[in-house]
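During the first year of the project, the team set up a workflow for recording each protein of interest as an amino acid sequence followed immediately by a discrete structure-token representation. This format lets reviewers and collaborators read both layers of information side by side without switching files. As required by the reporting guidelines, we include two representative entries from the current panel. The first entry is reproduced here exactly as it appears in our internal archive.
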Amino acid sequence: MIAAPEIPPEFAYPQDTDTRFSSDTDFSEDPDGRSGNSTKGKGGKKGKKAAGEKGKGGKGAGRINGHHQENGMENMMLFEVVKVGRSAMQSVVDEWIESYKHDRDVALLDLINFFIQCSGCKGVVSGEMFRNMQNSEIIRRMTEEFDEDSGDYPLTIAGPQWKKFKTSFCEFISVLVRQCQYSIIYDEYMMDTVISLLTGLSDSQVRAFRHTSTLAAMKLMTALVNVALNLSINMDNTQRQYEAERNKMVAKRANDRLELLLQKRKELQENQDEIENMMNAIFKGVFVHRYRDSIAEIRAICIEEIGVWMKLYSDAFLNDSYLKYVGWTMHDKQGEVRLKCLTALQGLYHNRELNARLELFTSRFKDRIVSMTLDKEYDVAVQAIKLLTLVLNSTDEVLTPEDCESVYHLVYSAHRPVAVAAGEFLYKKLFSQREPEEEGAPKRRGRQSPNANLIKTTVFFFLESELHEHAAYLVDSLWECGAELLKDWECMISLLLDDPMPGEEALIDRQETALIEIMLCTVRQAAECHPPVGRGTGKRVMTAKEKKTQLDDRTRITELFAVALPPLLAKYSVDAEKVTNLLQLPQYFDLEIYTTGRLEKHLEALLRQIKEIVEKHTDTEVLESCSKTYHALCNEEFTIFNRVDIARSQLLDELVDKFSRLLEDFLQEGEDADEDDAYQVLSTLKRITAFHNAHDLSGWDLFTSNFKLLNTGIENGDMPEQIVIHSLQCTHYVILWQLAKLSEGSSRKEDMVNLRKQMRAFCMMCQRYLTNVNTAVKEQAFTILCDLLLIFSHQMVSGGREHLEPLVYSPEDSLQSELLSFILNHVFIDQDDDTNSTDGQQDDEAVKIEALHKRRNLLAAYCKLIIYCVVEMRTGADIFKQYMRYYNDYGDIIKETMSKTRQIDKIQCAKTLILSLQQLFNEMLSDLGHGFDRSSSAFCGIKELARRFSLTFGLDQVKTRDAIAMLHKDGIEFAFKEPSPQGEGGPPLNLAFLDILSEFSSKLMRQDKRTVHMYLERFMTFQMALQREDCWLPLISYRNSLQAGGDDDTMSVMSGYSSRGSSVRSKKTKPPVGTAGTSAVKRKLPEEESSSGEVWQQSIQTPVMMPSPHLTSTAMRDPKRGRDDSYMGVYALPHEQQPPPHPHPHPHQQHHPQTPQHHQTPMDYNSQVTWMLAQRQQEEARQQQERAMNYVKLRTNLQHAIRRGTGLMEEDEEPIVEDVMMSSEGRMDDLNEGMDFDTMDIDLPPSKNRRERSELKPDYFDPASIMDESLVAKCNIVVINASVNNLQTAFLFELVTKHKTPLGTL
């Protein structure tokens, strides 16, 4: 490292200089070198401060912001200018250069303090420190001056005043080097000192120092690269001038000029060598260590700058010795760093002249770049694709077909930037070669257009993408780079309508279908100007240019397709898929063009074609497309409305008349009706239903005929499935259109009564169809019924629609039960049991997915009824209990339903959850019997479900307090509801449910645990508390869960269980101060806690709890043992019967714990047993706390001894920040093979800035370097300070060394 030069001891600071020191600046010596008395106030201390100052401001004369004016005024000015970022940076730098020329030590000291202050450090480097201290000592001193209260520093502080700091900071360094490049940087003083300081700071464990100094060093390096580049150019120019002059004839040659040029070239070479040494010092001292720093921001800075160096000065830096760092860092764990690698490489690949130097790098790291196109960070994936596009432009031979295919499929990505980048890559690869057009030749159109082959290529690519069938996504991906190609609708129409030219291969049917779909997507993209569904990023305000382009495109679309659409429909009228796509085109027309462009005859042709299509097709999609086309054309704002409306009315009249006639004949024939008659009725009904979806057909009485048809189907039971389904749908549309009219407010009372009657009759009809033998019919009836119940619920009167209140309909209990039964029988089934999708295609994955989608829709329809309170919330118990079993299929729906119901009514939701667990428990009992094994999968599954339910309540116990209390109340009542099947003395039948209920104990507040525990004891007898058999373990476990954490100030750990101490023990034994993990400040007195518990029970009782009985357990309980025979429940005695406390029981009492004590007041047997147990547990708790206090003292002394010792903190092998290497060693070895590692070498002195962590404050270190208690727990040999008691030392060493006991577990 380049050390700062020593300042002579006789050095004197001049008093009158051109620097920005005030007139009262303090200096330790006068200008003449005589020892004067010029110090004022505290200025005579030469920068040294008392320990308590730490850089804080003072009001003494000669100080600014607490800093000595000898180095504070310029420092403050530089930092403030950079912070504000408003002043011209060059003028500031020029002033500093002038001060440096006058006195370089003072100016350089100001620059050093500028870097220190930019790091967020409040310390100041004084002149004495600068003269007498090494860099490591200065950095250590500055570390101690850091602000301990905040981890922010200027580069990371948020806020408007710091927004431009980084930019200004970088600009200052760049301008400083640029202004000094002709003289000062070669004085072997300024740059050496600055580089030495930044190198030392970059090796600090203080993140602020490391981050700021690395940024400064990298920007300094970039500025030096610019200087080196200028020197290289000047050397080349000088060399050319010298060669030109030397090649002249002897008579014309100027020897003086030759000597001058030689001297200039020598000076330039020396300067070049000096700059090269500086760059090497920065590269070796900073970059090589910091490019693998533990902080991602620092690594990103290094990679970003090395990319700049290679781009600016490619002759020196663009080689494998530097490229390897970028290649290695592409494996970085942080997306920010990987992104910088890709942007750096893009700048290199963009220049084709550099491609030859990148060949080896491309061959070694191409696979990594290709794999980064699938990066989890979308920004990284986008830049990786753009980089591959640049590689593709440079040469076609590098990327293999497999590499290209891995990018092709990304055009279907849901993330639009990734898809657009992939679309550009695809466009460059497939569409870059166009047929050259002859100059002067007329522009070719239609099939002869140059775009014809490109459009065919697009179709071929779309068809080959077997995994994707979304043409809209492909069009959107290519839109930004290939809009001109995709808008060539004239060529597309020609390819579809015109005959192929001689020698040209015609499109096959599959290709024509794909071309029509792509053409429709391009029309939609041009007319709507937004991405397809699933890829949009929100609404974007279009610019004026974009709006004009949109209007021009819509006009052109209308002019082209208004003429071409009728012949296209005529050609493909029998193909349902093609017709469906073609019929969507009029939705994007500018209908005014039909009038202004005099295209009425083409409109007539279009209406005729649509009518013919309706008469030919019965496919639902085709009919709905026709209906939507009529709806788009029937716009009252345009003059064509009357013409289209007449055509639509004529078509509907014919359809309704035909349906009425066919239906009458069909119903009269009854069972004798043949299949042709049923087909005619079904096809006509399909057409009417499709039109009724988008058009109001209230003028035709369709309800009566459809209701009659449905009623006949119920009576006879042999109605064809599809007729019933479409009849239900058509009737549903009739009711919805009538409701839409009534919602407008201008309705008659008769219409209201008629709609109410029809709606209720139709709901009863749907309810009857729920029991149909056909699954499709039942699903249709269920879906329509759920929709009607939701629409006509109490929600419909909101929003100023009170006049619709007579229409509100609430389902009866029988209907609710049938709906729930349908869900349980048709939704919660195994995939193989789904009989609706078994047509020999059960193994088809697409069929399974479709069936699952249908079942999810059915469940969602019912869950909406629960959420909107149409059905009772308790019916959701049957849904919630399926959460775990069908988590993969319906987990998101059930979880959202639970969340919504909790928002509506927390208590009722909790009762529903516990009801679902009770139902599962009862089902398990019926299957396994009352003697089931609690380790069985069924019981464990219920416990896991309870745990999941518990997690849904969140962390806010106050909000869910009443709900959790109600849940425990219902659970306790259920556990003791049924008597024991073994007779008196046996456990209740449902007692094991308490084990499930304990999963919710952690959600209870501390005071509520007491109340719930008291409520539990109402159901218990004294004999229950004494039981220890396995069948009683659920009760013991549940009681433990209610007592754990219930009284934090008297917690103790015995045999793995936590409980509270009794009031007697608490009064006699004070809790230890400083117990591990518990702050003494947070502890409360037991008496206060007991009283607070009584107050809570009396005045703040949870609404769900009933008054407590006279004999209950005490609020403060003695510590329990584990599950052994000595554990018994303790019940409180009446106050007048409480025995006095005996902290030291008689030895006879210890050997005979069950011998009753004799008191003046006689006690019964139960009271005597209770009191004796309490005495025994008091003594055990007291001994346990004494051991805990002794251990705490030992542990505290041990930790202090370790922290005072220096053995663990010295001779750290390597900087921790350098140990974080993003690439594995093995991977680096693989990458190193075959690479040229020759780099510029300089011999620098060994670094004097290695951290000595024992002298630095660990508070400012990175988290990885802080020694916490976990480090103590892992030490097997500990250096104990001599002040620790010998007995304590021997005790700890015996535990650690002999018993192999980690200290953290003592």
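The second entry, processed by the same pipeline in the following quarter, appears below.
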Amino acid sequence: MQKQTTLFSFFSRTPKSATSSPSSSTSKSQTNGSSTPPGGDGDDNVSMSGETPSKSLVSTPVSRTGGEKRRRTSGGQSAELGGSRKKVKNEDSPSKEYSEGTLVWAKLEGYPWWPAMIRGETHGGAYSRKSAVEFHVQFFDDPPSRAWIRKGDLKIYRGSQDADIPPARSDRAWLSACKIADDALALKTEKRLEKHWIEFTPSEEENNGNCSAESEEEEEPKTETERMETPKSRSSRREVKKHKRVLTIASSSEDEESEVVSKSSKKLNTSNLKKPRKEEDEDDYSPTKNGSLEEESESSESLVESEKMSEVESGTDHDEDDTPKKTPKRSAPKAKQKLSATPNRGSPVVSKVDMKGRLQQFNIKDTPNSSLSSPKPESNKGIEESDALWEHMRLTWAQDGKRMDANRRKQTHPDYDPRTLYVPPEYFNSKSPAMRQWWEMKSKHFDTILFFKVGKFYEFYHWDACTAVQELSITFMKGDYAHSGFPEISFSRFANTLMEKGYKVARIEQTETPAMLEKRVKTSKPAKHEKVIKREICQIATKGVRYASFQDDSSSSPFTPESAYLYAIVEKSSSSTAEGSSFGVCFIDTTIGTFHIGEFEDDRHASRLRTLFSHFTPVQILHERGKLSSCLQQLLQNMSSVRKDPLLPDTEFWGAKKTLKFLAEEYFRDKEAGGAPQWPPEFQAVLSKSDGLGLTPDEDWELGVRSLGAVVWYLKDCLLDHDLLSQKKFEVYKPADISSNATVPSLPERLKRSKYMILDGVTLRNLEILEGPLSLLSTLDKCGTNFGKRLLRHWVCLPLAIPADICDRQDAIEELMCIRERRDKVVPLLKSLPDLERLLTKTHYLGSAYRSKNHPDGRAIFFNEINYSKNKINDLITVLKGFKTCVKIIKEFKNAKDEDEIKSSLITRVIEGFPSLDKLLTYFDNAFDHQAASKEGKIKPRPGADEQFDNARQTVAEIQSEADEYLKDISRQLKARAVYFGSDKKRFQIEVPDYVKVSKEFEMSSGRKGFKRYYNAKTKGFLASIMEAETEREEILRDITRRIFAQFDKDRETWSRAVECIATLDVLISLAIYSESQDLMCRPTLSYSSLPFLNIVEGRHPCVASDSYIPNDTKMGVEIEDETPKGNFVILTGPNMGGKSTLMRQVGLLTILSQLGCHVPAEKCELSVVDRVFTRLGANDNIGEGESTFFVEMSETSAILKHATPSSLLLIDELGRGTATYDGTAIAYAVAKELSERKCRSFFSTHYHTLVEALQDMPLIQMSHMACMVENENEDDPTQESITFLYKMISGPCPKSYGFNAARLAGINDDVIRVAYKKAKELESVVNGIRSFTAICTGIQEKKFSMKDFAALKI
């Protein structure tokens, strides 16, 4: 039978078992040694019996010609060059082709073909033996080594570019050896021997005379039985022929190694062994059918380059249930790696490998610290073509700087598309059919890592393989080109790992079986390159385009609770804001499926866009290519962790009309309404009212619809558009600072405001609201569900600004605090819930008829289909159990309401808004056996579960019943007992006794002793009808899982309302738990007021729960005991490290917490509603956007001056410190004066004491400072002072900042501090003198006193 080229031909053949005869084992070893493929580095084959074939090295060199330093070895005495070369006749007649001094290629197992020179063991010694079957060669190596090589493993050396020799250019030692050999080739034989002769220490065998021809000829040949029974004799004989190398196999621990040493090599001194090269070889994986490692093909072709892959692609006889076990591995060629102390180039091969071993040979690491970690590919930058590591590095047209896109545009072309690659036709046509598939897909998706399916395995090639090995800790396979892979079952884990690291991945599946391929070839007679398994891209995914796949393990989710948004942004210069722009945005979390569309005008700093990014964190942004303003470009460049994808205008970043036309035709057309589009209610806000069909956007929403078009195109390119758009979930986004319809109509116009407090990106960052070790979000987050966590983040980003709504939340939280026993019952139930919000999206696409019929996934062949089916069913069961738990939670709250424990209007609305799920859950409980379906991976519907299946089953039953009635009629007619015989296609044969006479309409079909069987037209009709009905039933049954999911998805709105209600309760419970977390908590009082105020008594930081924390009072715009009004503007001074910034952050967080509806850590908290919190805290530059520290300060201050209102809360820390003292003081003075006149509630901290003096007499400005206690105050030496910070804010300015104390605490030398203090005194004296002189001159000019008074001062 002719051998087929399959996947197995890529791997090494399994050596014979340990019980094989020595002679056969030796022969096998020699055969393998000569057939190592190019690029494979010819790894050794090591059987598990302990025999380790290796390079037969005799000794290491002692000295070189030219007087090199003598080297000692443990193999014997050193020898010196010199003396006459004694002519000794060779023991055998040497070959005419090979003589002493001849340059050859020599092949040893585990090594590539290596340049060498034939020479005697000693000067004039024998260079051949065994009738010229073996020759003694000296390898050109560093250090040089020697060995006896069989004639069959020798080839004449004609130069390093010999086409007949597989190159090993990945091995720099090999390249160096070739260079030496090329130089030697130009020399005459005598000169060559003289120049390159190395004197070696005699080996142990030579000293014992084991190498003599006489000893070999005198030794009587032994039978196989004698050799097996005489280990000593066998070992001795083998030492003459071939030494065994020591192989060290890395264990799972970096500190432990296990050595596999052949018994015959125990006496061999390891110092005589050839050192391993600077690369290691680990076993590649071997997905074989029969459990053995097949022989590696000499061409070293990839498994996908085989034209016949039927055995692998059919996936038969693979036991996927086995657990992988550890086997030794071989790494790929690696350019720069330290030499190991113990040789480890061997390639261990297991003789009998079960599925566990095969899977483990994929070299999939559980931890990155495994000692079997694979090498990372080197960059090809700066590598000469002849030294390139992999094939793709040697392709000139594929190198960076020389590439062209699919339209043959060079990289320097302005329209160059880096997502595509031009592949020359001559190269493309030279590849095998399967590899042509890969190159065709790669040329269209050059920026994507292709998971190329081959049988049960996903493969990586070329660039993708290098990336996969580096990022996934898998290893290269053998071959001249980069190649790696892993089993199908691991796709989800590896794909998610790459996406998390920012890569774009594509999953390519086989969409036909070998049987389908064979049938297609027979029927359609395709071209040669089409005679290959069909493959299609089924999924393209990035960090921003992901969804819960059926390939994910149903027991764990690959997603974090936080949403990850895909954005599309389009910008247009705004006519109304000369310095700003208008932005259209669309963003979506693809795991949930809601499209958010927005359009707004922004300032020159893109403040609203930055705030949007803070609220809804992007992980990927689409934008128009070449149409970014400098401001937006700098903003995007500064977001280093976000993937940015430029799209071509119009063709990819669609226009508004093109977008609406596509949506109307593909998704929103109502066939029953004559084809007119039926737009979702939320989406109609962006459509023009003048266009009845909705194919024109509103003039205020054109940019927003264009950004939607970009998202739709990208999702379409990723094959995910239908799954998301068919949900029809849209929301209109408006920035929080734009007044919406949600205002209070009863208020006067001047008090109308937005529904929410505005927290911009700067404030969220400066107050550490969302991120940081002590962020407000992490402090409040006690939620038990992932969808509850997402809702809590939304609430924190948008605190309420209407007192009535705030009061509703406060009432709900207080009641939850009062029913702690019931709450404690609910909390474990909440924690047990899965992410129902995301699972609803997953069930939607799993139930999609479009996906099963028109999506490539519907045609894909999965070899773990049963596991995936189990995952799908388990997901549905998990969702159903989750909603049953939701019903229990609501029931617990209903009982509390019935017992008058709950009166809150908010909780009441949640309870009443929760839909009735009992009927739906009962239906799915009765639809199928959940336990059996989960175990078998198949749903067998019960009666009433699926109407179509019930009809099909009823049809089969009716046909069978009719046939049974007809059989009774036949029995009566024939007056004999008649029965049906047969099964499947031979059913409905009427069996009657042979004595019964039948009419001519009966056609005899078969019989048995005493009986005959007949067909007639009626029974043939029954057979045809029932087979047709059964076929229809089976087709419905095959699709029943999808149909059950589709049935569940019909009530998606009902399920979604239930999730929203549970999420609200989860967040309220979380806030209630926080409200009990500290001893002293109070319910804030909020109100509207034309005179804004803030009164906090004994307030503490909400994120620091410590008994040692010092509370503080904060009063703005309120009356104190003497009925003197407090100013809204607080100038805060105090020593460095005295707690000014902490107090300011504390006030800001308490204000936000109050408007969340939560209790706050204070004795009393009263305030009028804050519409926005501004912060100017810390000193940070923005290098990415070229902004200095002072410029950042001024930008943030500009936003405050532009948007602050009397209802705002301002927190400004040390404004002006980024520039010269006088400039900074002047700017701080002007800003403070402006804001105080606006009557904004403000904290303004400063160390400018001149500023304090200038502002202290202004009305409604109160002076405060952070108190401290100074001991050993010394006006001459500040290093002797001891300062205790009291962290208490008291009235009045602070006389000093005590900066020298901070310097001393930071460790600055006392002498330096003294010098600085002395200089400070001098500067202070000069300034005071100038002030005094200015005051005197002013007084004289204004005639407040005379020169006589000046003279009395005695200055």
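For the second entry, the following points were noted during internal review. DSSP finds 42 helices and 38 strands in the chain. The mean pLDDT is 77. Both points are flagged for discussion at the upcoming steering committee meeting.
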